[in-house]
């Protein structure tokens, strides 16, 4: 009898150990799941707070902070001018075929209005364009560039706006057979550590009509750069100037959202207001058009 009682006691203890192990495992999983769920919720609230900071900064145009926007979340934002008073920059947005970017030669005030005076606008005569993500061969999808220079014959007179255009294709066989674009200069030496496959130097005055001078402040307005043929993947563009520095190309907004122990950051680049590129090839006139 004593032996049977001892065996029963062992079985009971083993059963209790198994049950206790299962309970502890379930509790551990539950605690882990709750912790993960809590962290995920905090991360989501921190991201939402960062987005709220971006929206606020874009509306008021300046940085700021809010420690409590609800649910124990807050944000802090900074707003900085992009590419201001420097002679070279890498545009932050990659481009597929047909996409465009704008390089501004005129300065802007806090409201986004164009303004020149006191040396605020670009008066250089030479630009170097760099583009393309690799140098391993030149395929049918190697990106070409179209460069459109918008300038004024008389500064401040929009009725005298003119456009000078040039296009460059690294694929020489494609240029000879279809695009008829100009050749490139070779590979770009790089801008701020970013390497590019292709480079082209431009003399801006060669794209302008006689009587217009790029070294007169307010003559150069902006340039539109369009990428072509790269249907497989996007590429970045870099721009270098000689003889002057660029005015601000837009604003960079960095917002840091916090919720509990979670931190999330969101960065947004906003260029200055511009005419949609669909109108680049339209006919404009400040008066009636006569055939």
Secondary structure topology:
Blueprint: H1 2-60, E1 64-70, E2 73-81, E3 88-90, E4 100-104, E5 107-108, E6 114-115, E7 126-131, E8 144-152, E9 161-168, H2 172-179, E10 186-191, E11 194-203, E12 220-228, E13 237-242, E14 250-259, E15 262-271
Antiparallel strand pairs: 1-2, 2-14, 3-13, 4-12, 5-6, 7-11, 7-13, 8-9, 8-12, 10-11, 14-15
What can you tell me about this protein's structure?
With 291 residues, the protein is an alpha+beta fold. It has two domains: 115 residues, no CATH class; 163 residues, no CATH class. Helix content is 23%, strand content 35%. The chain is built from two helices and 15 strands. A five-stranded antiparallel β-sheet has the order 3-13-7-11-10, with no helix packed on it. The protein has a four-stranded antiparallel β-sheet with strand order 1-2-14-15. Strands 4-12-8-9 form a four-stranded antiparallel β-sheet, with no helix packed on it. A hairpin with a 2-residue loop joins strand 14 and strand 15. It is elongated and about 115 Å long.
Per DSSP E runs of 2 or more residues, the count of β-strands stands at 15
Helical coverage, percent range: 10-25%
> What count of domains describes the coordinates?
2
The average pLDDT is 86
Which strands sit side by side, in order, in the main sheet?
3-13-7-11-10
Strand-and-helix sequence, N→C? Answer: HEEEEEEEEEHEEEEEE
Largest sheet: 5 strands, antiparallel
- Gap from first CA to last CA: 121 Å
Shape summary = elongated
The share of residues in extended strands comes to 35-45%
Which spans have pLDDT < 50 for at least 5 consecutive residues? Answer: none
């Amino acid at each position: 009898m004593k032996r049977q009682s001892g065996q029963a006691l062992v079985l009971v203890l083993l059963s209790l150990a198994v049950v206790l192990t299962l309970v502890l495992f379930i509790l551990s999983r539950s605690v882990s799941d709750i912790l993960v769920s809590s962290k995920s919720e905090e991360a989501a609230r921190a991201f939402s707070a960062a987005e709220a900071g971006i929206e606020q900064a874009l509306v008021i145009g300046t940085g700021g902070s809010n420690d409590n926007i609800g649910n124990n979340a807050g944000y802090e934002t900074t707003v900085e001018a992009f590419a201001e008073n420097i002679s070279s920059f890498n545009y932050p947005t990659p481009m597929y075929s047909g996409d465009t970017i704008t390089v501004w030669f005129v300065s802007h005030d806090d409201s986004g209005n164009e303004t020149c005076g006191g040396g605020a606008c670009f008066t250089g005569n030479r630009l170097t364009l760099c583009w393309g993500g690799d140098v391993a061969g030149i395929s049918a999808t190697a990106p070409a560039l179209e460069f459109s220079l918008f300038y004024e014959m008389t500064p401040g007179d929009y009725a005298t706006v003119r456009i000078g255009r040039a296009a460059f294709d690294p694929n020489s066989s494609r240029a000879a057979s279809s695009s008829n674009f100009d050749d490139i200069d070779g590979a770009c030496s790089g801008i701020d550590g970013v390497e590019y496959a292709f480079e082209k130097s431009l003399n801006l005055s060669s794209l302008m009509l006689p009587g217009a001078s790029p070294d007169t402040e307010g003559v150069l307005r902006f340039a539109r750069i369009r990428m072509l043929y790269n249907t497989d993947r996007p590429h970045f563009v870099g721009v270098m100037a000689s003889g002057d520095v660029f005015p601000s190309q837009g604003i960079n907004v960095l917002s840091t959202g916090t919720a509990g122990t979670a931190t999330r950051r969101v960065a947004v680049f906003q260029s200055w207001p511009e005419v949609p590129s669909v109108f680049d090839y339209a006919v404009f006139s400040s008066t009636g058009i006569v055939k």
